[in-house]
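Q: Now give one record:
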Amino acid sequence: MTVHAAWPVAVIALLAAATPGCSSCTGDPAFGIEPSDGGADAGPVADGGDDDAGVMDAGVEDAGVEDAGVEDAGTDDAGTADAGVEDAGTDGGVAVPGRIDHLVVIVLENHTFDNLFAGFPGAETQSHFEYGTDVFDAPHAPDNLPRDLCHSHDCALTHWNGGAMDGWLVEPSANQGGDHLAWAQYWREDIPGFWDLAESYGLADHFFSSNLGPSFPGHTFLLAGQAGWAIDNPDFLLPLLIWGCDNPQSTRVTVLSDGTCATESVFPCFDIPSAPDVLRAGTTWKFYGTGVDLGALGSIVWSMFDAIDPIRNSPAWDNVVTYGEFESDVQDGTLPNVSWLVDQDLNSGHPPLSMCASSRWATHYTNLIINSPYWQNSAVIITYDDFGGFYDHVPPPELYGCDADRPYGLGFRLPAILISPWVKPGVFHGVTEQASVVRLIEELFGDPGAVGMLHALDPAARDDVAGSLLEAFDFEQTPLPPVPGSESCP
């Protein structure tokens, strides 16, 4: 379907009007754009404190920030001796057992761990709540939520409430008419693909957002291990439905000045390094995103690399393509070593869009890898950009940026499903974060000593301190068999 320039504006205006009480609703470009790339759309179209605060409560006494793989990443216990960290790629076109040659990072929108995986065996979750006389069980989340929830930086700080994790009680969008929507939880039958994949492979239950805030910083952390200290979304969205260097020069985003509590408004086009800058020579990458037709202005691919100037305004932007190419690259045997796969249309899962459609979309693209010759040497991570205003009961285990009363991060727990023949099956309890994805890219596809290289280039990057997801893998285990997830909806 061709997207006419005026059509998305009407769609977003309509959906925004249906989400009262949310100051951040119009700040996320996830509402109702159908892809203009002509690629496969697997899902159905929807209708519509101190530094150690919360570590003990998180149930990870032995996995604290320093012990979460930061100092010990790459140990033999994690299987890295045979992980091919120095030899990513195939030998003469033949897959080599016990290493990762292809990493696919699928990024969806706006959910917490408790919201999607409450009751998952072995995971730390909570479904019963007592706040004085307000005692209730988590309501069952509908497939299409009636409204978006506030998930700006200010709302996140309110929700966090100094680590008490009870600020949802006073934030207006969280509970309207006693519906306790922010505490709502999906059940296994609502999102069968996600639970199938988590049960067959791995699920990280202490994977945190790297910041207390919404989409713009969250997406950027997954590319660069930082977000230029941005605390919120840029103030421009319509009608281009993109953020970054392509925005009008008057566009501004609020950032912390060098991580202090002082703020400034800057153009959202950052001169910062990102994961492609630390890849070993010969390593290939692509960002697969939603094609946005801008009418007379042409078309563009939605990608947060748009906000990273050295990518957007260089030949590297040629690696940013529409997600319809992902399926053909898998089928043609041309999948790059590192891929980001991001849907910004009806399958993102951003409220009020269909959650099952999102699960089905992400599972479909994961199944492409599971059912392909790439499986033996691949890993897929399905995760999220931000918490979306939903409740999660585990306090962030580390505070950094600004001060102890208004920290920049860490943020709340996000789902992270780990799919690979080499992932340790079950629940991975190590403390990790969005910046850990960039660290994993460095560990698998960087030169020796690459971990922390982005931080060396720019101290705002957290690849030097983020916990290691590599500890969730065992490259000496019997490889797990290919088990596709369900692509059905109830």
The chain has one domain: 6-472. The first strand starts at residue 102 and ends at 108. Residues 355-370 form the longest helix (16 residues).
